[in-house]
Amino acid sequence: MKIRLFHEQDAVQIAQLFHETVREINIRDYSIDQVKAWAPDNIHFRNWAKVCSNRYTYVADDEGAIAGFGELEFSGHIDCFYCHKNYQGMGIGRKIYCAIEDKAHELGINRLYTEASITAKPFFLHMGFSIVREQQVERRGETFVNYAMEKFLKNAGSPA
Length: 160
Known about the structure:
Oligomer: single chain
Low-confidence stretches: none
Helix content: 25-40%
């Protein structure tokens, strides 16, 4: 398993991974209507390529199969963070997260933050994040619970 930065040709696999993960993993914590609003059937692959190219998007590459991905924005925001349904519980998310945190240190970012789903909340807690607040968000007419979470990094920007 290799953790590397996103390549444009990864966009189709990433979009499919997102869609399948929400529909088959997040369904444990959200209703069918919620997951259909979150991950609609009409995936726009070009949009994924554009968004992933404008961030530090790390992918877990298992000999050409994308096992997971996570996005770090320049502000310290972790936007999308998903692990493929067939790679859950194998430490892939931790490896992607470590690459993100290493990049944040390199960039001098001292605070990481995200909006974690009910499903992702335990992972981010395990990575040292704190819950700032539970919130209600709306997407395509459906309301969801998620959690604003943050983690302050020690010695951001300092040489190791």
